[in-house]
Write a structure and sequence with these properties.
Number of strands: 9
Number of helices: 7
Strand content: 15-25%
Largest sheet: 7 strands, mixed
Order of helices and strands: HEHEEEHEHHEEEEHH
Strand order of the largest sheet: 3-2-1-4-5-9-6
Oligomer: single chain
Structural class: alpha/beta
Amino acid sequence: MAAAAHNNDAAIEADPDAELDRLDITHQKFRILLDNKLLLCPVESPERVLDIGTGTGIWAIEYGDDHPDTEIIGTDLSPTQPSWVPPNVKFEVDDCEETWTFPQKFDVVHARYLAAAIVNWPKLMAQAFQFTKPGGYSEFQDYDFVYYSEDGSLTDDLPTSKWITTLLQASRDFGRDPCPGPKLGGYMRDAGFKDVQVSKTSILYVSSFFPHFSKVPVLVPLFIATRTRPLNAAADQEREKQQKTVGSWNLVQIEDGLEAFTLRLFTQTLGWQKEEVQVLLANVRKDMRNPKVHAQFD
């Protein structure tokens, strides 16, 4: 779930230094899943790029390093980004759900990991469309946090099932969708984007619903994204190795973020005692370490 792009009074999760470290781990997970790419939309030399809910700023900084001639603006409500950044990167304290006031449009509008952080997704997408140049791209990467298992090993009586079901419903009651991933393509089409491409990349332990990118209407050839599974044994082995690496990173970031995900919602929204939450989370960690439980999400 995202720790950026929502105001501090309404924050669902904490934002200590440990949480920022966890977001950087998540960034590395995304890079591995995207074959070390920061974007999948076919833009080569953009002039201006907007990174919504930039968090620690790591995506904007790395994109700025790779594209020194591109101006990158990262926005977030929390000024948690480092002061030492590439000269073409700057950060602004801003709420992405308020009216955007940028003086110019962008070649790329990028956002990811905003699950449970956004109240009005259609408004956000409409503003992304408004501020994307004709012929430019918007790319959103996000999740569906409903846990499941393909082999039935994640049963309803397990602590993990109780935790995630309660967490997702509390997030919805709080007015924030924890599962925007499957809806992003529809939001984009409704906002006016054309040539909307949606891909879902599955891995061994979890699946991440991303990326979603689309193009502002313009008379250029249609871009069609294709991602196919390798057909030879060596490539399959390499892919499985990648999946295990990502699964390990994902386990670390989930375990490190359990209290940040859970404490405020359960204690302040649902009225749980802190000790009750901690007992539940201790059992959730046991489930996550149990090789017989094969939980995943999209």
